[in-house]
Write a structure and sequence with these properties.
By secondary structure, the protein is of the alpha/beta class. The chain has nine helices and 15 strands.
Length: 293
């Protein structure tokens, strides 16, 4: 469970929450109350938060605990409205989908995926491919953020997280990347790294399906990943694949140590090419890296 707070750039009023997400309140007088963060479990509630407790935490004690922790409002499921809970903070009711929670998180963060190039890698175990692509982007001169199992970093700073990451986690991390000055982020989409719907408000620029080291291993399809993680694709989203040309470029890089690393580098090259990086720049970057080894 998680909180979205420190990197937030936008504030939402109770009126905003009612209008945008169809939430209801017993009182209309609280519309100007402003929340500055989101928390989806009580342990993560901080001053200014909209507390969104789990269904099994829906009782009067939950509201008192949210107040004690400094929450400015609390969101309960619609089914709880019949109990007529009262508190010193606004009590909102609504059943938000994962997509709506993602949109709310993006709203309060200022939609960080619109301010950074997002590279998405789909597969069963994506950490190594994420690392290879992030390394290539770094060599090309891009400050990079990474989201992958036990190796999420903002530039050179390691981010300690609980996995799998939820939608609030991802939006908060994207905000941290933007704040730290990253120009690109590489996200590994696998079941160990991301919870269902975790990318519901993330607009992807380039995506690709990673290749398993075992050629007989089953991999999820790109469509399955879109459905599972709620990936936002748009008309200009590019899908990258290895080609004979990218394979050849990877083979000429002597830093690769085996066929699997060649394939990963080839796919990384294909993805940065889809992002508009020129082949000459890629070759120069690989040559510089080779000389430094």
């Amino acid at each position: 469970m998680s909180a979205l707070s420190e990197a937030s750039t936008e504030h939402l009023t109770v009126s905003d929450l009612r209008e945008r997400y169809g939430l209801i309140t017993d009182s209309k007088a609280c519309g100007k109350v402003t929340v500055t963060s989101l928390a989806d479990d009580m342990a993560s509630v901080t001053p200014g938060a909209l507390a969104m407790p789990r269904p099994d935490e829906t009782d009067a004690d939950t509201i008192l605990e949210a107040e004690r922790r400094g929450a400015y409002a609390v969101l309960l499921p619609l089914s709880a409205q019949r109990f007529g809970f009262q508190g010193n903070i606004p009590v909102l009711y609504g059943d938000l989908s994962t997509v709506e929670r993602g949109q709310m998180a993006a709203d309060i963060c200022g939609h960080p995926s619109n301010s950074i190039a997002v590279f998405l890698i789909v597969g069963d175990h994506t950490s190594q491919q994420v690392s290879d692509l992030a390394g290539l982007l770094h060599v090309l001169g891009n400050p990079v953020g990474q989201i992958s199992l036990r190796h999420s970093t903002s530039l050179e700073r390691h981010l300690v997280e609980d996995y799998p990451l939820g939608v609030l986690d991802v939006e908060r991390m994207l905000s941290v990347f933007v704040e730290d000055g990253a120009s690109a982020v590489v996200i590994g989409a696998d079941e160990q790294t991301l919870a269902e719907g975790a990318l519901s408000a993330v607009v992807v620029d380039v995506c690709a399906l990673s290749e398993p080291d075992d050629p007989l291993a089953l991999q999820p399809s790109l469509k399955e990943a879109v459905d599972r993680y709620g990936v936002v694709l748009r008309e200009r989203t590019h899908v990258a694949h290895r080609t004979a040309e990218t394979d050849d470029m990877a083979r000429h890089y002597e830093g690769a140590v085996d066929e699997a690393s060649d394939r990963r580098l080839s796919l990384a090259i294909a993805m940065v090419m889809k992002a508009g990086v020129r082949k000459g720049n890629i070759r120069s970057a690989l040559r510089v890296t080779r000389e430094m080894i």
